[in-house]
Amino acid sequence: MTINHPSFGKLEPGRVIIFDTTLRDGEQSPGFSMNLNEKIRMAEALTELGVDVLEAGFAIASPGDFESVKTIAETIGQRADTPVLASLSRAGAQDVLRSAEALKNAKRKRIHIVIATSDLHMEHKLRLTRDEVVAATVESVKLARNHADDVEWSAEDATRSDFDFLARVVEAAIKAGATTINLPDTVGYAMPADMEAMYAHILNKVPGIENVVLSTHNHNDLGMGVANTLAAIRAGARQIETTINGIGERAGNASLEEVVMAIRTRPDAFPYKNNIQTKNLLGLSRLLATVTGFDVQPNKAIVGRNAFAHEAGIHQDGVLKNAATYEIMTPESVGWAKNSLVLGKHSGRAAFRDKLNTLGYKIGDNQLNDAFRRFKDLADRKKVVFDDDIVALVDDEVMRDHERIKFVSLDVASGSKREPKAELELEIDGVVKSGSATGDGPVDATFKAIQSIFPHTANLTLFQIGAITEGTDAQAKTTVRLEENGKMVDGQGADTDTIVASARAYVHALNKLLVKRERTEPQALSA
Ligand code: KIV
Ligand code: ZN
After folding, report:
1. Global pTM?
2. d(CA 255, CA 431)
3. Residue to mutate, 23, 156, 229, ligand 1, most ligand atoms under 8 Å from C-beta
């Protein structure tokens, strides 16, 4: 059966629409907020990845959210290759109108409406009866259709809803004009067999269901997000909602890279097409880790550092003889470079640019110059510069060029015979400021010096140091967690000097805190 969709035209039965919600559901996870520049950067990379629908935000949530949906609509939304841009709304006029306003200038747009359909949510959260939920659905979908041809309606907590009621409200949403129907496992409760039962029920009971796209959106509370998404595809879903690195509320959402590579690696089980450029997956995962400050765990499927590493001798032997013995997809197909080509101080700009490309980074000439300068500096201090060093360097400096507070320099005197003292320079909003402090160790002195230049009330709740590669000349990678008024942010820094890496991580965390403050209190920008 071919669906005639307002945004995609005639949809062949074998086509799966990839809906990315990294910038909306993903961003809702604690500590993962992104500023406007970071969102635009992510939106560009997601567009180049080939997502079909990009949920840019929840326009009514805050003035900052509205601005980012609007700006993405006015930039990415003007490109010839723009994905359909979506904004989330609850089932009420104000929300729908706010989304419509934010998306106004996008060439391709979708208003996404959500309302809960489980008795638990309707009674205790919404305090609405079933009839009232049906009425709110109909009204809001009709209103949305006045502003967009493409309207998605989501039944929050669908998997814990009474399926007969779910069928009733889905039918009402379709009659009111919804063109995509999404049945989320909002709390990550379902098992794959439950997904099959739910989609079968809706497909059997709802007249007109064959004319809309059925969608799936699964959380990971029991680690079932990807399995449930794949089960939903087999049960009839033709749109999947995912996030990069699986970020999202609580335990996160089904991860885009895992679902896409499962489909691609097992065409026998999933004979479906999508537009994802899988070679971009690693770069995008890294970009997200950089802007949020959260790395993926080393054993994360597809994009984790160990995803294609073979440690056991017997495995290494097999891979050398024939990679297919232990690799079910090629590392290159998801963006990993063929080898860890070592760069050194004699490597030129072309080799460096080439390396950045193979690592999944696309950066402009100015940023390339900065990165190359820092690479040369590192190569002077370190015999060999590995891929991981370059990733840390680019992430640490170049991707953060829009931040308000920048690390400039640090001089620390310490040892067993003297009180540690740090002298530090930071650039704040373009003005270089200096400060100094003593402390209980060089790191403590450094953090106090930062505090003296940029006073703040955040508490340091985590400080971690790791080595990026091996050897005593390895770069240190540090993580600093700050908490202020219940808001938590993680910052990361890298340098061959552990104390400099610590200062960079602290500064990164402070910048993220500023983004958080800006979102909740637009005026509270100064320290
Ligand atoms: O998890 C959920 O139910 C959602 C909806 C807004 C789709 O995120
Ligand atoms: Zn969700």
Report:
1. 0.81
2. 41
3. 156
